[in-house]
């Protein structure tokens, strides 16, 4: 590693950059004015100098960084809440939109592919080379889209005690202030069998880039016996698990009322907790300032070595936040980052994780840029059981991004990681490589016509907004469900 002079190797490709964030075997390090050597889909080494005459690509005033790992997203349905759920919520459910707002606006199956393409493009453009796609009604479509775009992806198959397409809700709120639940465990067990088959069938897809996961949709959409069976199947077949857990306060409260246990205790007692479990959000646990009961949730999470996919922007939009990033880390929880909804700018998500971590920790030293960068790289790789992702080291996959330093947000630069976390956006990302292939070039994803897809998305959205009144049990139209910030004016 870091040879002064390397001999000419016709099979290797050399990239020169002002900075390279390399892995020295134990930690990330910042190399200045160096060369990254890749061969095929793997990283070979790093060099300070090359032998005279060795061909290389000079990336100029740029930084090469490990590809980020997004641990939670929903590509085929992500934009359904945009221009609708913001600034809204049910005060009776702690301002949540999960229950009586969910499902009222749908853009239809035909629009799922458009959303998936746009969202994966947005994720790629923000420097993510691997994404955990939670999955659900359109898991097969999401797997196909991931393979086509070139991203590395782990795709879940939704396991819930109800129908596969999630068109009939397991929970309901007929009066807007109470919840009723209807569990169909037989259907849930069928969903689990489908999930196992889905994961097996994906193995080897996309030259090994695409893999499957078991994805119980939430602690309160599955029976406890279903969660026990998910663990058995995961262990039997060596398949990872992801779940929405302790996502909001009404879920926490309902779990206590229905089961006498917190969502984390449910995951613990059913055997679901483990190093192979990625829990999306996991904000509402005992010890949080808005939960007035004592408990051992954080201890259980840390002892199990489970991963929390922290998605700070969507939490912050509803007035919530993790308490605290630093406290979870100190308890032994493997902390990762996810985008969940919109915007799916992973760099913005990292910034929010750092800022909210400092605010809740009441310290500038809490949730440092270093902490967040680790969460976005090697911690994410650990969550997926991968030692060859999230870092630039010999033998690792050639998954990395090139950050342009010739921009207002990145200048001046002394510490690449601090500039990224506190100043950059996805527009700072110039190129993205997955498996050694450049799939984002000069900020554009190859094969994706963003403008055309956005035009189609607008048409489907307008049709979906008009149908909301028919789907709402109280027949509220879109302008009642989500009033415009500024009312329309007619100048005729």
The shape, in one word, is: globular
User: How many DSSP E strands?
Assistant: 19
**What's the CATH superfamily of the domain at 68-385, by name?**
Metal-dependent hydrolases
CATH architecture classification name of the domain at 68-385: Alpha-Beta Barrel
Helix content: 25-40%
Q: Count of helices?
A: 15
Q: Tell me the name of the CATH class of the domain at 68-385.
A: Alpha Beta
- Distance from N terminus to C terminus (CA atoms, Å) equals 72 Å
Computed CA radius of gyration, to the nearest angstrom: 23 Å
Mean pLDDT: 94
Largest sheet: 9 strands, mixed
Structural class: alpha/beta
Task: Show unreliable segments.
Answer: 4-8
> Into which percentage range does the β-strand content fall?
15-25%
Give the CATH topology of the domain at 68-385. Answer: TIM Barrel
Map the helices and strands.
Blueprint lengths: L12 E11 L4 E12 L2 E6 L9 E2 L3 E5 L1 E6 L35 H17 L2 E6 L5 H11 L2 E8 L11 E2 L7 E2 L3 H18 L7 E7 L7 H14 L3 E5 L3 H11 L3 H7 L7 E5 L15 H8 L2 E4 L1 H6 L7 H6 L3 E4 L8 H16 L7 H8 L1 H6 L16 E5 L11 H7 L6 E6 L2 E5 L2 E2 L4 H22 L6 H4 L11
Parallel strand pairs: 1-4, 1-5, 6-7, 7-8, 8-11, 12-13, 13-14, 14-15
Antiparallel strand pairs: 1-2, 2-3, 5-16, 9-10, 16-17, 17-18, 18-19
Helix pairs in contact: 1-2, 1-14, 3-4, 10-11, 11-13
InterPro entries: Amidohydro-rel (IPR006680), Metal-dep_hydrolase_composite (IPR011059), Metal_Hydrolase (IPR032466), MTA/SAH_deaminase (IPR050287)
Protein name: Amidohydrolase-related domain-containing protein
Keywords: Hydrolase
